[in-house]
């Protein structure tokens, strides 16, 4: 018997498989039993109602996809009234992803969403901050620290900081988030990318650019998850390009305590529930009885810190 | 069968309506120069479909073709008694090129049936559909449903030339009156189609209008519907990622109660009220 129980700070998950924000909603219950996964993570919500970006909002590139959905949101009132009650029927921890374009608004929604039924808040600090020329909060350690300090003061719930790959200061940002009170890091969001139709010469996304996700993001996000796990003491949740049990194992070995599955669910909506069972089989095949035995077991003993934390390809 | 497939089968569908499942290709043949007809050997559980619904298809990756996202495709036919699911498609891009390579006996992963299909209200006895090209595939199951319910159907089928007119035999088999219009014969212009539809309306022979896809057809039928107070429905397309409502990628604009709203084609659609649909 293999124990998949995973702890993220004070929260206990039945297994380490959960959805990535934006790739999951109540709609998925038409296809799978969402009670079988470790946690439920919502699409990012904002305080105000928002419409989202122009279409096309998604395009595919070889073996991966770009998206620029924006953050269409029905607003926080609708969310509290309709969405939170839906998830109450499940034992899996309910994690709400939130965002805002200023620290003030961010702190406000963080406080307002700290209501019964919400078990943790994933703070999407990878989104543009209008007070910093549209640079994402999580691009810099200073803006990360500043916004996380405000968010920490606004809620007693566990805060998971979702980091961006669009930075050259991965470990400094991770340390800043931890220092300001984050309870876990989600590593990472999508990578800013572009695709152009050579016949029409138009960008393939209505918003010109968008985030890369899917298998081609995995080596980048894995590298970041590894660096973050080395740099901080709080749990790291790996996210980026996971579609197979080998991907899950790789993130866990790199130091992630749990993982989020995103784009793969679009390709195969049964991916998450399948991965739970496959992880059980994989661990059994390795004679591992508890998933925690795999976490952070990467054999990097001989590597110098300068190599572990490098931010440029050698 | 691999573990993964077995797991997916066992765990697919929490509510007994939508399934991610493996089917097997029975045939995949060229219909005329432009279209292909794919027949799948499909389990009963996915054949409880409604006209206008769609499946989200996992097009096979091969050396030559590497589609990544699933492709939404409207259902051409569903036959529980034969255990068959049919699609009619035009080879147009990476996904359909990959589908064209499917051979008899190949496995094919499908997700569905998805979305909200066409409705036929109790007092809609005379139905009129207008469709062109591959849009005829989307409307074919409506003809089947109309026959099942004993409603009279008129199908105006449009194409470039008479030899690429599709599904007219199928519509006739379903008891529909078929009117063909083609570019080659100079009969497919909007003025002529308008005249045909108006003639039917004047004769009191239209309770509901149906179409799909085309902006021009929408504009024509929306105008006629509004003018004569005749309800209608249109199936719309939009690029999709997840197909089940999670990603918010496939939204379109609609006019409702004097406001512009956004709805997901995969979830609230793909069939929408004709008067609420907006040109694009």
List keywords for this structure.
heterodimer; A: 314 residues; alpha/beta; TIM Barrel; 4-stranded antiparallel β-sheet; globular; B: 280 residues; Elongation Factor Tu (Ef-tu), domain 3; Rossmann fold; 2 domains; 7-stranded antiparallel β-sheet; 6-stranded mixed β-sheet; 6 helices; 15 strands; 22% helix; disordered N terminus
What does this structure look like?
The complex is a heterodimer of chains A (314) and B (280). Chain A is of the alpha/beta class and 314 residues long. Chain A has one domain (6-308): Alpha-Beta Barrel (TIM Barrel), CATH 3.20.20. In chain A, 30% of the residues lie in helices and 17% in strands. Chain A is built from 9 helices and 14 strands. In chain A, the strands form 3 sheets. Chain A has an 8-stranded parallel beta sheet. In chain A, strands 5-6-12-11 form a 4-stranded antiparallel beta sheet, with no helix packed on it. Chain A has a two-stranded antiparallel ribbon with strand order 1-2. In chain A, helix 5 (218-231) packs parallel to helix 6. Chain A is globular. The N and C termini of chain A lie far apart (43 Å). The relative contact order of chain A is 0.16. Chain B is built from 6 helices and 15 strands. In chain B, the strands form 3 sheets. Chain B has a 7-stranded antiparallel beta sheet. Chain B has a 6-stranded mixed beta sheet with strand order 10-9-8-11-12-15, with helices on both faces. A two-stranded antiparallel ribbon of chain B has the order 13-14. Chain B is α/β, with parallel strands linked by helices. Chain B folds into 2 domains: 3-114, Elongation Factor Tu (Ef-tu), domain 3; 126-235, Rossmann fold (3-Layer(aba) Sandwich). Residues 1-11 of chain B have low confidence and may be disordered. In chain B, helix 3 links the parallel strand 8 and strand 9 (152-159). The N and C termini of chain B lie far apart (44 Å). In chain B, helix 5 (190-202) runs parallel beside helix 6. Chains A and B meet through strand 5, strand 6, helix 7 and helix 8 of A and helix 1 of B.
